[in-house]
Amino acid sequence: MNRESRSAPPAGSDALSFADRPGPRLSSIMIRAPASVRVLSLAILLAGGAEGVRAQSPTGSTPDPCTRASAGPRTASTDLYCMVLTAPLGLGRDVEARVDLRFAASPFTVAVTADGNVRYDATLTVRGLPDPGELGTDDAGRPYTTYVAWLTTPTFYPETRLQEVRNGVVELGRIALDKFVLLVSAEVAPDVVERSGRLVLRGQSPSTRMYPADMMEYLVGAGGIDVGADPGGGMGGMHHVHGGDGWLRPPMPEGITMLPALMELEAPEAAPWLPGAADPESIPWVRPRELVELADGDTLALEATYVRRRLRGGTHIVYGFNGQIPGPLIQVHEAATITVRFTNRIDWPTTVHWHGIRIDNASDGVPHLTQEPVAPGGSFTYTVHVPDAGIYWYHPHHREDIQKDLGLAGNLMVRPARADYYGPVHREEVVVLDDILMNGDALVPFGRERANDALMGRFGNLFLLNGEPEYRIEVEQGEVVRFFLTNVSNTRTFNLSFGGAPMKIVGSDIGLYEREAWTESVVLAPAERAIVHVRFPAAGELPIENRVTGMDHLGGRFFPEVDRLGTVTVRHDVKLPDLAGPFTTLREHLFVQEDIDRVRGEFDRPVDHELLLTMEQEGLPFVVERLMRVDSAYFHPVEWSGTMPMMNWNATSAEVRWVLRDPATGREGMDIAWELPLGAVRKIRVHNERRAFHAMQHPLHIHGQRFLVLSVNGVPTDNLVWKDTVLVPVGATVDLLLELSNPGAWMMHCHISEHLEAGMHSAFTVR
Ligand code: C2O
Ligand code: CU
Questions:
Q1: What backbone phi and psi angles, to 5 degrees, belong to 473?
Q2: Quick check: 287 pLDDT over 80?
Q3: What is the 106 CA–ligand 1 centroid distance (Å)?
Q4: How far apart are CA 708 and CA 509, in angstroms?
Q5: How far apart are CA 511 and CA 416, in angstroms?
Q6: Which ligand is nearest to the CA of 370?
Q7: Closest by alpha carbon to 227, among 253, 208, 207?
Q8: For the residues of 172-236, what is the DSSP string, one character each?
Q9: pTM score, two decimals?
Q10: In the chain, is it the N or the C terminus that has fewer CB atoms within a 10 Å radius of its CB?
Q11: What's the confidence (pLDDT) of residue 5?
């Protein structure tokens, strides 16, 4: 069995080789299924794998119109952001058509609806269409006079008319469907409302390549296998699935197609670890976050400590800064300098990083780059000077996958010097968004020697807003609230909304956008911040929700995922000063525009440096590797939720290597070592490699400086804001303008904690 499966060469696999691997792990997938099923399943998986490889390496003599139109090897993926439309037989000449899918304009690098569907602006480029009259007449004998484009679903219902089409370039408009089909037909009149004429072109969205892997239904059985399914609607299962290896497995989200072989995976290559204590009763209960207002020159004592907390009825030992989750909300004025005397009272070495602050390099908190880690019991003094107004945060920078996830994260609010910096609101709320991974009432352990969940990062299944599973606020009718949102989760990108309450985006990582803008939802990747104004016009209860498109990878389907994160109760009839007027006015932030004007002349400079984001693996279990090859036929721009928990759980940084590469030198990781001149700007092109073994979005964070996201997939950003973290969607290319304002040795890395642990980091020097 082993021999057969390992020696069967996948057809057309010249571009990607299947690494050989040791036998023991391989045998572990074969348990339970009868022999006939095993042979069948491997045949299917291999066939699927070959499909994946074909999709990844479009070869052949004539490049398709998407490949030919591509602006280069490291621009937008032609495979994910371009569709080839083909003509059915019998059109009698060469017609060539492609549709380019661009993210619609948005304050975020990926545009989505409130439900989490990606919003594309579609452009059709077509040549070779004959004069429609040459195609004859319809059934009623009326001659065709024009062409019309239609949007439909893979089941061809319903169909929507898009645009009249001719040879050349036609804007088809906006599309926000998870899977779709585009058609062009010859019609008797341009204004037909239903397609009735002859079909001349058709094409399927890249996402339709995600289809059910054959036979999966059979392998899984008719729902008869208990895989510790999560009965709580995706909010965590009640089964404790313990292996004999001491690991508690993550629960399966409900309704996801699952292979029994995956449930039999051996434990990750790491010992299971959670904080413990000889005398748990002596550990203090967690306290809610406190506001600490500091003046220029003040000192704060900050400790990383053990705390006890209850979650889902279980009692857990976790971490907190000064006994609080989130850590104290430190509030200072712009341009102040404070001293933070930090003491490490947990069992790991650690450091404190001041995320987003253009801080003095010696206080940046990066182990082995700016300081040695603070040993348990040790201390370190940070000098925190805050040059920019806005919302920032602090967290450990050593085994962040564990320490941050267990509660070590807090906000640093920098109050602006300008009185008119923000528009008027009734109140402010500072909200930390997080999730934590539980199985029943227990925490799922972490890998001790190295991070597990190394493929997609550790997705939690219990959402925490300011540390609370049931976050609630009360507001009055008509109240306008300024929310400062920070995503501190290990890997989850949120798509947040307030039950349809009108919302405008005001600021991001480092201060304000050039102008305020309406938005249906806030897309927030790990480490990013958003400042939004929300008005609650009607009394009642509104949910705070994360609405995304989940992916059932094996089932080949998208599904709407709605996570309730909290509740806003809007009280009736209380009289507040009315701010409806200022709320509905979108402000221009002239001081931001003027600040950006200083570098606007550099926007068109050539690309100075490139960075490639990719991944390599060696030694993943056979079944995982095969399934991931099936899955690589399509990657979504954003992997919103953890729908492959077993494969992910099993993978550690020993098998998975996430890579930052400088394509100009071929150097990777810490070897990239750019030397950049202080006072200059540099254009950095970042490309997220779609052809990686597994591709996923990466929130790329750059320490110590600030940058602008100039363009995404070649489309210029129309409303700029200074950033320290950028969400780079799968297969996408973003151009950054990095301002070099702060000397020192600085890190850049993916802010998915497990990707950071699995090698996705680098450093550069500014002098
Ligand atoms: Cu918030 Cu290097 O990290
Ligand atoms: Cu990453």
A1: -130, 155
A2: yes
A3: 25
A4: 11
A5: 9
A6: 1
A7: 253
A8: EEEE--SS-EEEEEEESSTT-SS--S-EEEEEE-GGGG--PPTTHHHHH-SS-----B--STTS-
A9: 0.89
A10: C
A11: 32
Q: Which residues pair with 291 in a beta bridge?
A: 329
**pLDDT for the residue 762:** 98
| Packed helices 35-56 and 622-631: angle between N→C axes, nearest 10 degrees | 50
Closest-CA residue, ligand 1 atom 1, reads 355
Taking residues 216-229, report their average pLDDT: 41
For the chain, what is the mean pLDDT?
88
DSSP assigned state of 647? H
Instruction: Flag whether pLDDT at 57 surpasses 50.
Output: no
Give the residue among 17, 84, 82 at the shortest CA–CA distance from 50: 17
Query: Roughly how many angstroms between the first and final C-alpha of the chain, as a whole number?
Result: 59
Q: What percent of the chain has pLDDT over 70?
A: 87
Q: How far is the CA of 64 from the centre of ligand 1 (A)?
A: 41
Q: Which atom of ligand 1 is nearest to the CA of 355?
A: 1
Q: Tell me the Ramachandran region of residue 221: left when phi exceeds 0, alpha when psi lies from -120 to 50, beta otherwise.
A: left
Q: Count other C-beta atoms under 10 Å from residue 381's C-beta.
A: 11
| Distances from the Cα of 515 to the Cα of 107, 507, 589, angstroms | 10, 9, 5
Distance CA 127, CA 534 (A): 47
Determine the average pLDDT of the residues in 65-83. Answer: 90
The 479-487 sheet, strands edge to edge: 462-465, 427-436, 479-487, 529-536, 503-508, 511-518
Helix and strand counts by DSSP (H, E) for the chain: 13, 44
From its phi and psi, is residue 499 left (phi > 0), alpha (psi between -120 and 50) or beta?
A: left
Band (30; pLDDT cuts 50, 70, 90): very low
Among the atoms of ligand 1, which is closest to the Cα of residue 703? 2
168-199 pLDDT, tens digit per residue, is: 999 999 999 999 999 999 999 999 999 999 99
Q: Does residue 723 sit in helix, strand or coil?
A: strand
**Residues in the ligand 1 pocket, defined by CB under 6 Å:** 353, 355, 395, 397, 527, 701, 703, 747, 749, 751
Geometric angle at alpha carbon 400, from 394 and 404, rounded to 5° = 55
